[in-house]
Structure formats: C-alpha cells, structure tokens
Amino acid sequence: MLKKHPKGLISLFFTESWERFGFYGMRALLPLYMFGAIQDGALGWSNKTSMQIYGWYIGIAYVTTLLGGWFADKMIGQRRSIMLGGFLMALGYFSLALGSMPSFFTGLVLICFGNGFFKPCVTSMLGGLYEKNDARRDSGYSIFYMGINLGAFAGPFICGTLQGLKGYQWGFAAAGVGMLISIIVFWYAQKSRFGTIGLAPNRKAMKDVPKVPLNKQEKSNILVLTIIAMFTILFIVAFEQAGGLLALYADKYTDRNLLGFMIPTAWFQSLNPFFIVILAPVMSWVWSLFAKYKKDLSMAVKVSLGFFLTAISFAFMMGAAVQFGAIGKSALVWLVAFNFFCTLGELCINPIVWSNVSKLAPTRYISSMMAVILVCIGMGGYLSGFIGSYVDDLGPYQIFGGITAMMIVTGFALLTLNKKLKAMTYVQIESQIEKAKEAIEEKVEEKEPALSGVE
Predict the structure, then answer these.
(1) CA-CA distances (angstroms) from residue 27 to 160, 384, 398, 405?
(2) Which CATH code fits 9-204?
(3) What is d(CA 283, CA 268) in angstroms, rounded to the nearest whole number?
(4) Quick check: pTM over 0.70?
(5) Strand 330-331 relative to strand 254-255: parallel, antiparallel, unpaired?
(6) 104-163 pLDDT, tens per residue?
(7) Which of 114, 126, 320, 356 allows an S-S link to 85, with CB 3.0 to 4.6 Å?
(8) Which CATH architecture has domain 206-444?
C-alpha cells in the first residue's frame, strides 16, 4: 500500500507518530504530576490550581501554532520550523524531568512554543507531497492520521507505565526520548525524501496572485465557518476534560483494580486514540451510506450529532459520580463508556469542521480560517481547565451534569440554525487561484489585442 505513495509519507508518518508519543505521554502525566502527593514525587498542588494551569497550557499550546505557522511561512521555512519546534519540545520534556519548580514552568513554556513551530508544518509538508488532484491524497492523509493515533495511544501507555514503576521523571524523560527520535527520523529523511518541499519560506507564494475581492457567496461561507468555529469552543470545553478533570477523577474517584492489577491512571488517556482507530472507519462508512442514498447530512447536523454523543458520554460520568457518592468509588467501566461516546462525538465534529474549512473557504483565506479554528480550540482548552478547577467547590456530579446540559442545549441550538446555515453555504466550484488566472488572461487580452492574430 505504501509503495504507491511518495517516499516522504512514511517519514512524516513516523515523525508525527513519535512527536505525538511525546506530546500525549506528557499530557497524560501533567495533571497527575500537579495534583499528586508530594511523597509520590509530585507537586502536591490543589485540584483547582492544577486544573487552571492545565487549561492555560492547552490554550497556549494551540494558540502558538499561529505564531509558528507565520514564522515558518515568512522567515525560516517548514523544515527548519519542524526541527526548531522538535528541539524545543524535547528540551521541554527533559526540563520537566529535572523535577524542580523553575524547570517545570520552563518546560511548559518550551513545549507550548515548540508545538507551535512543529505541528502546523508537518501537515503542510504532507500536503506538498501530492499534486492538488492526486487520487492518493485522501489515502495518504488517512495513513498519516493512523500514525498520529499510534503515537497518541503508545505515549500515555509507556510513559504512564514508567511513571508507575520509576517515577514521574522517568515518564517525562521517555516523552523527551520519543521527541528526539522524531527529530532524528525527520532530519535523516529530509536529505532525500522531500525534494524542495518545505525548504524555503512561502512569503512570496501568493504575491503573484491578484487580490480578488470576496464576492457575496465567499463572505457567506466565511460567516458560516466562523459560526461553526464558535460552537467548536464549547465542544473543546467538554472534550479537554478528558485530559484534565477526567484524569483527576480516574485517579481519585475510580476503582482502578482489575483482577488484582492496579491500572495506571495515565493508561486511560490511551482509550481515545484506541477508539479513534476502531471507530473512524465505521463513521466514514456511515457518512458514505447516507451519501449513497442521497441523504447526505449537512455540516450542522453532523456537528449537532457530535454534541449529543458527547452529552451521552458525560451522562455516563454523572452515573459514575452517583456510584461514587453511594459506595465511595466508581467502576472503571464508566470511564471506558465515556471515552467511547466522546470519541464518537469527536469524529462527528473535528474531521467535519476541518474538511469544510478546506472545502468552503476561499483559497487565499484557508490558512486564516484554520487559524480561527485553532484559536477557538485554544479558548476551549483554557475554559476546560477553568471549569474543571471548580470540582472541589461544586462536586463532580454537578460539573458533569452541567456539561451534559451544555452539550444538549448547544446541539439543539445548532440544529435550529441548520436551514439558515445551509442556505448561506455555497460550495466552491472554482478556486480563487483559478479565478485569478482567468482575470490575468482577460487583462492580457485587453492590453494586447493585436497579438491575437499573430502566429
């Protein structure tokens, strides 16, 4: 299967897989390290402080992708940006492993900015491996997505295991080793597998394209995408609880004993990527089935379905909180059910939103709209930590119930807007670059009419 694809695909596959290994391995340990007991090698902070810092970390890690993408395009190119970002993240993980307070905050800052330089550029380079109309493009992205989830699954599992056996420093160091492997894979591959892709900045790429004003349909599409982006904030508020509040709940409220074996808390972070690998083909088949019978669902309907599925996931956590109140611990099956339905919700929202950005946004505004989505994800990440920080004040049942209600209300609100959003949506038949080329040709013909008869 891989033989049919550009050689650079397998290199980017392992580059991203090892990077996600480090990122998600560290993410699984971060809340535990902050609120864990001092005698266990953790910081011993309050739940409120831990959740607030987690929210800030997630928010900044996404917002810095705007800076990193701009810096790569305007200044150093995607390849140097990937190497710089990877180096900063590796330093960040090893800084966390030092175990001091200054090194902790230094590590978080390095990881946030490293992620900003690294993450947007790998995906952009992947797109550069294929021509615009290459039939292999979708398959290539699917293979790449598998690499992401392979790393996201292995990171919490391995780093969490090392944390349980040797301590937090070993888990953070393992994340750093994973990042170093990612850098080495990319450095070795760039010598022969990418050609000129990502080598030079793209600051001159669009200068030759005339600034064609947005027409009514294009403005309408941008408004539709902006509205959906606002709804995305609320989904991320719920989704990022999996890395923050749910980590706390798994550690302090859940009976993790399975047949005499105490499951490490970090392992639960591997459930989401595991279910993505299982469920992504199923959801793809479901959407294809609707399209086959000409019942293709609109973007708003699919995203609404995602909100309802996410509501179901948090309803399970309400059940877990009820059981905890009754017997002092809740069964781990609640967390499995939560991750199953939350992953279904994610698959109805994230891929659909990103796909529609590339489909609906005018060509020269695709990057800007993706930036809007990333900022919204960052805002949702911050708010997730802010809400999760009130678990001691309100109790887990009240927070899970509030998020469940928010997801249901948001889903119905989006459904009520469905007809209006469909009426406002125009599928781009022709890219802005093609229109610009036509405009250039028309101007040339107007200025040089005599040439039309010369052979």
Answers:
(1) 10, 14, 25, 27
(2) 1.20.1250.20
(3) 23
(4) yes
(5) parallel
(6) 999 999 999 999 999 888 877 877 777 756 667 666 777 788 888 899 999 999 999 999
(7) 114
(8) Up-down Bundle (1.20)
